[in-house]
Specification:
Number of helices: 19
CATH class of one domain: Mainly Alpha
Structural class: mainly alpha
CATH topology of one domain: Serine Threonine Protein Phosphatase 5, Tetratricopeptide repeat
CATH architecture of one domain: Alpha Horseshoe
Radius of gyration: 23 Å
Strand order of the largest sheet: 1-3
Shape: globular
Order of helices and strands: HHHEHHHHHHHEEHHEEEEEHHHHHHH
Distance between the termini: 49 Å
Number of strands: 8
Strand content: under 5%
């Protein structure tokens, strides 16, 4: 197979033109038959496309290109987008320093409506991915390729489509299920339940994944068979199909490994250096979105920071405090914690530098806190002892470090750091969670994978801190905590909180932080069940007579 990364930059603009012509199909979000009027023989059309493997590769590249959207796996903060960082900072992991100017702040504040643009943006970006995948899936059997090639292309498109549906059902719950391009007459789909969608998608994945090349035989930059199983595992876990999740993840275990830097002894480098361009193709990354900038206008904008740590969005002190001390104990129980507590813990004019020492190495690999360096500047502002020092601009005094590359400041709006959709650490923790929820597994079987994640950063094993003979609930809380500190700002927090029924508690944590410290960006509220599912965008309801709103949002 051809090297995907070599082909990608030459054809992704071509695929965009195909989409505009309508060749990549119609969906609930995009219905037009204008392209039927195109009669220029030099124009791309359904009559001269969908012929060869080269066409199939172009169509597949269009699917990957859809994943680069600023409202999906990119984050153009300065361009009114609702990307993964903007989404995650709506949760208890972060906040929007610029308040209501930031898309999604209404979700955090509990004031959202079905007309909020953040919902329609995320809806549209996922259905665009699904639309492009459906076009390839429909056409591939009639193209001039071997059966093996057809199976591989179809399988890859079905797996990417499954990722789109996983994204949608995780927050919107019940949505239209589209498994083929729609004609204009068909463009009024009804809502399917989350369970219906999960059942159909999981069945498709079981049938097609064996046709996708395995790791080592797939083209560079393309989804592997193991990567498709990781998507299947995520969807199964998020929809509580624990048997299927366990089965899928077991196809991935041992095929990848956790990244370690150098001789592997430095826990901080083992984690922090994973999120650098030098290591974006390491064996931990199962599915990454490739950005080949600068200069290609692909739009990777994770590095936008305006000369220092990002100040439009920020992390929360609650997240920061959830990183344990190096002895594996919470900060309120560890003798290693030397920082202040209570209201004394927050003083923007006199940062508590001791608060961030002797902590889980992932803290400083994820967060930018007082005392850390950005380029050559140390952010060590103290009004009394060092009034000329740099001051972190965030209201929480905790900024985001993961995904930001200070060494690449010249390319803030056109960077080249890949985004990791799925990495091996998530697989290990998700498999542990599925085993806990399924029941019937020993503690050793479950904690084996949690311990692997912990030990990569030199944190102690579960058995050495929490002990043995733990209950299901105790194990559940351990893996949930581990997911938060390991996977922060990787676009999983909404899905986690929603499926755990933890959104109300998250809101309460944020309000306590706001009240205790006077920090944070705004007070949050909880309106009940409607805040635990996103509304179907109102513009979709208005244009589709068969599509009904969720009952929690006033629908049927």
């Amino acid at each position: 197979m051809e090297d995907y990364t070599m082909k990608k930059n030459n054809i992704f603009n071509y695929m965009k033109s195909l989409s505009l012509c309508g060749i990549l199909a119609l969906s609930a979000t995009s219905c037009s038959d204008d392209f039927f009027d195109i009669n220029n023989p030099n124009e791309i059309s359904s009559g001269n496309f969908w012929k060869t493997e080269s066409d199939a590769l172009m169509a597949l590249t269009g699917c990957y290109d859809a994943m680069q959207d600023g409202d999906l796996f990119n984050d153009y903060i300065d361009g009114w987008k609702f990307g993964f960082l903007c989404r995650e900072t709506c949760t208890d992991n972060g906040g929007h320093s610029w308040g209501e100017w930031m898309l999604g702040s209404s979700i955090a504040k509990g004031t959202s409506t079905a007309n909020d643009e953040c919902f329609s943006k995320y809806w549209n970006s996922n259905y665009e991915l699904i639309k492009r995948c459906n076009a390839l899936i429909e056409k591939v059997d009639d193209m001039e390729m071997t059966d093996a090639q057809k199976g591989a292309y179809k399988g890859e498109a079905i797996a990417l489509r499954a990722l789109g549906y996983c994204n949608l059902v995780s927050v919107f719950r019940d949505v239209p299920y589209l498994d083929k391009p729609l004609t204009l007459a068909e463009c009024q789909p009804e809502r399917n339940t989350k369970e219906e969608i999960a059942t159909k998608v999981l069945a498709d994945l079981k049938a097609c994944i064996p046709n996708i090349p395995v790791k080592g035989k797939a083209a560079k930059g393309r989804l592997t068979q193991e990567g498709a199983y990781a998507i299947m595992g995520r969807l199964a876990l998020f929809t509580k199909h624990y048997d299927e999740a366990i089965e899928a993840y077991n196809h991935v275990i041992g095929k990848y490994s956790l990244f370690k830097s150098g001789d592997g002894t430095d826990g901080y480098k083992n984690y922090s250096e994973l999120f650098t361009e030098a290591n974006e193709e390491c064996n931990e990354v199962i599915l990454g979105i490739h950005y080949a900038g600068p200069g290609l206008n692909e739009g990777q904008t994770f590095s936008i920071s305006w000369g220092g740590p990002m100040n439009a969005i920020e992390a929360t002190r609650n997240l920061c405090d959830d990183y344990y001390c190096t002895d594996g104990l919470p900060i309120d129980k560890s003798p290693l914690f030397k920082g202040k507590t209570g209201k004394a813990a927050y003083d923007k004019d006199h940062p508590d530098f001791a608060r961030y020492e002797n902590r889980d190495p992932r803290l400083k690999g994820t967060l930018f806190v007082p005392g850390m360096k950005w380029l050559n500047d140390t952010y060590d502002y103290d009004k009394t002892t060092n009034p000329d020092g740099k001051k972190i601009p965030s209201a929480s005094q905790v900024a985001i470090m993961k995904w930001f590359v200070p060494e690449n400041m010249a390319n803030e709006y056109d960077g080249s750091l890949d985004y990791y959709v799925i990495r091996y650490a998530e697989v290990l923790l998700s498999l542990s969670e599925a085993m806990i929820e399924k029941g019937g597994y020993s503690q050793d079987q479950i904690t084996k994978y949690i311990n692997e994640v912990r030990q990569r950063v030199n944190m102690p094993k579960v058995e050495d801190v929490e002990g043995k003979g733990l209950s299901q609930e105790q194990l559940r809380q351990i893996v949930r905590h581990e997911r938060r500190v390991e996977l922060a700002f990787e676009d999983l927090r909404f899905a986690d909180l929603y499926r755990w029924g933890e959104w109300k508690n998250a809101v309460e944590r944020m309000n306590k932080e706001f009240e205790t410290y006077g920090a944070g960006d705004y007070e949050r509220s909880y309106r009940g069940a409607q805040d635990e599912v996103w509304p179907i965008p109102q513009n979709e309801i208005d244009t589709d007579k068969n599509l009904k709103q969720h009952k929690e949002w006033g629908g049927e």
